[in-house]
Write a structure and sequence with these properties.
Blueprint: H1 4-11, H2 15-22, H3 30-43, H4 49-56, E1 59-66, H5 72-87, E2 91-96, H6 101-113, E3 116-121, H7 130-136, E4 139-143, E5 153-157, H8 159-172, E6 178-182, H9 188-203, E7 211-213, H10 218-229, E8 237-240, H11 243-255, E9 265-269, E10 283-286, H12 289-305, E11 313-316, E12 319-321
Parallel strand pairs: 1-2, 1-3, 3-4, 4-5, 5-11, 6-7, 6-8, 8-9, 9-10
Antiparallel strand pairs: 10-12
């Protein structure tokens, strides 16, 4: 059986470098790490996993706790995390919290029990379980939503600005009664999107009176949209807080015999693969989900390598992709 010394000789590096490279340490130059992995593969070298974990007191595993595995936004984040982690020899375990603080806390307990090297999570709420990670010294990074009670690395999108820009786009199209469907009160992204919507309407001297808050799911959004659209003065346009909710809104419009663009302008957060295939295609606020994942993974690896680093907040931008669902057209059939 090939040994770590054989790998070191083949790669032309020290055994210590081989150990650090195969354990996914971020301090190893990427070119050297690639050379070590190639040498290990050529020789068929397999490190003794249990012994290695006992020595390091952690597994070369990252836990990723996301809010909704069915949402393409979060699956794109997961892909970004996995791509970076895989490059340095880490595996990723995906956990779906379903916006449940109880499930999130249980997954954090499991991550601690399994001695994972670090945790990336999209907090479903106050995230009390994070205190246990901090107490144990386990590296963690928040994505999409901050952890207000903890000093942590976090990767966010300026979602308030993005919501304001999307709403301003609807104003520019001539819509007068613009509604907003957002997620639960107290969830940072949901609150920010309502705040951005109100910012834009205030600037345009419009009243922000058509707001509904519900779960970040299609079923809740459908009911909220039906309620809004049944008002004596229903909205003539809607800002929708994510793509799962957009599905519910489109269902409601179909039930009421109304079409996006012709009857009701629609802009939704997140560019799902199906958004461009609709008739008319859906205007979206495209968030850089994959980049959120890659940046979070890099920050986590850096935190694993050096737990004394000052926390960093990375804020990425979103972009409005204009399509026909938000453009007025009286003759569209």
């Amino acid at each position: 059986m090939p040994t770590i010394s054989d790998v070191a000789a083949r790669a032309g590096v020290s055994t210590a470098t081989v150990s650090r490279a195969l354990n996914g340490k971020a301090t190893v130059d990427p070119e050297l790490a690639a050379r070590v992995r190639q040498a290990a593969a050529e020789l068929g070298y397999q490190p003794n996993g249990p012994a290695r974990n006992l020595r390091r007191q952690e597994a070369a595993v990252v836990a990723l706790i996301i809010s909704d595995v069915e949402n393409p936004f979060f699956t794109a984040i997961a892909r970004g995390v996995e791509d970076v982690a895989h490059e340095v020899g880490y595996s990723v375990v995906l956990c779906n919290s379903d916006e449940s603080a109880e499930k999130e806390n249980r997954y954090i307990d499991i991550a601690i029990q399994e001695r994972v090297a670090g945790v990336i999570l999209s907090p479903s709420g106050p995230a009390a379980g994070v205190a246990k990670l901090a107490a144990r010294g386990t590296a963690y990074v928040a994505v999409d939503r901050p952890l207000p009670d903890y000093a942590s690395d976090v990767v966010l999108v300026d979602t308030r600005l993005a919501a304001a820009q999307a709403t301003a786009h609807l104003v520019a199209q001539g819509y007068q009664r613009i509604g907003c469907l957002s997620g639960p009160t107290g969830v940072r992204t949901a609150d920010d999107r309502v705040a951005g919507y109100r910012d834009a309407l205030r600037a345009a001297k419009h009243r922000a009176r058509l707001v509904r808050r519900t779960e970040y799911k299609a079923a809740g959004a459908r009911l909220a949209a039906l309620d809004l659209l049944s008002q004596p003065e229903p909205p003539d346009a809607l800002l929708v807080a994510n793509n799962a909710m957009a599905v519910g809104v489109l269902q409601a419009l179909q039930e009421l015999g109304r079409r996006p663009g012709r009857d009701v302008g629609v802009v939704a957060f997140d560019d799902a693969p199906w958004a461009e295939l609709l008739d008319p295609p859906l205007t979206v606020v495209a968030q850089p989900a994959y980049e959120i994942g890659t940046e979070a993974a890099r920050l986590l690896l850096a935190r694993i390598a050096d737990g004394t680093r000052p926390p960093t907040v990375t804020t990425l931008g979103a972009r409005l992709i204009e399509r026909a669902s938000s453009h007025r057209s009286k003759d569209r059939t």
